Amino acid sequence: FTDARLLLFPVKSMKGVFVYITCPKVLERFKNDLELCSLRFKNGDSEIVIPTNNSLKTVDDKGKCLVANKNEIGINGTAILEEYSFEIQNDNIENLANLLAGNISNDEIKNKLVILSDDDFRDFVNLSTEVITRTKINNETGTVQPGALFTEEYLPSETILYSLALTTPIFKEKMEDKGVFAQVGKVEEELVMEFFKQGIPEVMQIGGNATIGKGIVRINVWRDDNE
Length: 227
Known about the structure:
The protein is an alpha+beta fold and 227 residues long. The protein has helices at residues 24-36, 70-73, 94-104, 109-112, 118-128, 188-199; strands at 5-12, 18-22, 42-43, 46-47, 63-67, 78-81, 84-88, 113-115, 130-137, 144-154, 160-162, 203-205, 216-218. The chain is built from six helices and 13 strands. The radius of gyration is 22 Å and the shape is flat.
C-alpha cells in the first residue's frame, strides 16, 4: 500500500453546512495515480477536464472557485467557506463530481464538490487540521514525564483519502505452499488483487487511539467502468 493521500477535504460553508474542497494539483496527482493502475479518469464516455490553477488564482483579493451545484452552495454567485468568499466561475465540473460520488459511494459529493486554487486549498488544509499538544504521564508518579511533549494531528471526520494497493506474485517457489493462490494458468498478481477486493471490510480502524474512537474509516475500492 502507498501512503494515504488527500483527495477531498471538508470545509464549513455558509450554505449547505459544509463542502468538499480539492484543487487542480491534487486532481492531477489523483489522475496520474489512477492511470498508473490502468484505471480511466472518465465518467462513462465523458472525458474529465481538470481546470488549470491559473484560472482559479486570486485576483484583486477576490478568490475564485468551481462548484458542482451553484444552487446548493452559491449565494448570489459567491461561495462562502469559513470566513472567506470565492467568486463562482462558470466552468462545469458536474462530470467530475458524478465520477467521484459514484466510486466513493457518497452522493453528497454531487452537490458539494468545490475546486479551489492550489494555494487556497493548502491554506484551508493547514488551518483546519486539528492539532493537539499532549504530554506523557509517568505511570509511577502520576505526573508529567520530562521531555515527553508531543503533538497529534486529526483530519476532519468527512475527509476523503485514497491509497494505491499494489500486488506481486506469491513469494513461494513450490505450488503447494501458495495456498488459495495455487491456480495453474492464473496470473498470481490478479488472484491476490481479487482476494484483497473480496476480503477487505467496509469499515475498519487504522492507527492508534482506537479506544477513543479515532482512525475509523469507511473503505471503497475504485472500479473502472469496464469491471
